[in-house]
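Page 47, continued from p. 46.
Same chain as before, 156 aa.
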Amino acid sequence: MKEEGKAPQVVEKPINERIKFLLQALNMSARDFSRAVGVADNNTQNYLEPRFAQPKAEYLEKVMLHFGSINPIWLLTGQGEPFLNANEPSVSTTTIEGKKNKGIQSTGNGTNTINNITLDDCKKDLATAHKEIALLTSQLADKERIIQLLERSAMP
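Result:
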């Protein structure tokens, strides 16, 4: 018998069950999932067992940032749908291994992404970024000198 004025209680699955669901939906092993989000291989495996500790905020943040389609409310509380976009998981990753990326990465929704970024491309991008940083640092120093000159010239 339902009591008047009280909302029905929703029993949500514990966090370890939600992580298990994600692994299945994304078609990933615990090790692959851990590597994808940038944590130690055994982290996700430990969180799958209810007797182990609850995931830390940093872990959950990495999961949500890496898998942008995961509904953060669902991940944290179990309420709502697991994925934001039509219940389809997605992955946006780039992995660099050696000279050339290897393999095809499954996005979990039936499509695959081939990562073909070479290490040389990354080195060129890094060199360009270093040059830009040096230029910006020089411009900042120039700005500071101009401000000092203006302040001196404004003094009586």
